[in-house]
From TrEMBL:
GO terms for cellular component: mitochondrial matrix. Belongs to the metallo-beta-lactamase superfamily. Glyoxalase II family. This is Endoribonuclease LACTB2. Pfam families: Lactamase_B (PF00753), WHD_BLACT (PF17778). Residues 106-132 are annotated as: Disordered. It comes from Branchiostoma lanceolatum (Common lancelet). SUPFAM superfamilies: Metallo-hydrolase/oxidoreductase (SSF56281).
């Protein structure tokens, strides 16, 4: 059972979480959206899903309680549970250009492809859902400022090809999007990239993680290392299974039955997907032949 999360919660002097109210197997209790800053105009990180009637009143309440408005929106990645609320927020708060909605660009080869959570974006150029309003594209290391908060963009691909975490310099905290969750583990498109992203986040030695789903993580460096250790353990088990089979080729499902012995059978298909990602990583880093 996912940890209960309040609809609105002040997490620090400069961070307020507004729950997206879109619970599900990948979103836990829902998408965490964050109002960041201490001034009269603040940054919103992620926007939740489309068509969630209770979210907008909660976002409005959180802003009105401090007499603040929105400065701009930052998006951690393209999944609909993070971008889906953009158009309704734009309309409800009567936003207008030059108000910015910013994110990292997608890899063009990834546009239109189905991802690990089963999401398939529309073919062609990315859209915000607001007619005539496009994304402002950020680059790794870009700094976004508002009163009381300095955010640094960190390129963390793996979960998606455009994934961005944000370092909150004043707190040595990271908004991790779906790279690291508050509980459980996440899914990924590319494990090779994902592991490098975890190592990159670990290098910042953050004290706190504000995740895209689940409760905040206070011992952030330990949590990131747990994610790394879990994947390394699975990789070692897969290599051991392949060595046991010697020259006999194994399918991903055959490896699942050797490695995921404590996993219920109805989850074996998903586990086979993870094994396939591990095999691709092993090829990519030169551990096994392609």
């Amino acid at each position: 059972m996912a940890t209960a999360i309040p609809k609105i919660e002040v997490l620090s002097s400069r961070v307020t979480r507004v729950l997206g109210l879109n619970p599900g197997p990948f979103t836990l209790r829902g998408t965490n959206t964050y109002i960041v800053g201490t001034g009269k105009s603040r940054i919103l990180i992620d926007t939740g899903d489309a068509g969630i009637p209770g979210y907008l009143p909660n976002l409005r309440e959180a802003l009105q309680s401090t007499g603040t408005s929105l400065q701009e929106i930052l998006i951690t990645h393209w999944h609909h549970d993070h971008v889906g609320g953009i158009s309704s927020i734009w309309q409800a708060f009567q936003l207008a250009s030059p108000f910015r909605i910013s994110k990292l660009p997608r890899n063009p080869s990834g546009l239109g492809s189905k991802d690990a959570e089963g999401y398939r974006p529309p073919q062609g150029e990315e859209t915000t859902g607001v007619p005539g309003v496009g994304y402002t594209y950020l680059r790794e290391g870009d700094v976004i400022k508002t009163e009381g908060a300095t955010l640094k963009a960190i390129y963390t691909p793996g979960h998606t090809d455009d994934h961005m975490a944000l370092l909150l310099e004043e707190e040595n905290a990271v908004f991790s999007g779906d790279c690291v969750l508050g509980e459980g583990t996440t899914v990924f498109e590319d494990l090779y990239d994902y592991m490098k992203s975890l190592q990159k986040l670990a290098g910042f030695k953050p004290g706190t993680i504000y995740p895209g789903h689940g409760p905040i993580v206070q011992n952030a460096t330990k949590k990131i290392q747990e994610y790394i250790n879990h994947r390394n353990m699975r990789e070692s088990q897969i290599l051991a299974a392949m060595q046991k089979a010697r020259e006999t080729p194994l399918t991903a499902m055959e490896i699942v039955k050797m490695v995921y012995v404590d996993t219920p059978e109805h989850l074996h298909k998903a586990a086979a997907g993870n094994v396939t990602h591990h095999l691709h990583k092993l090829v990519k880093d030169g551990t096994i032949g392609g």
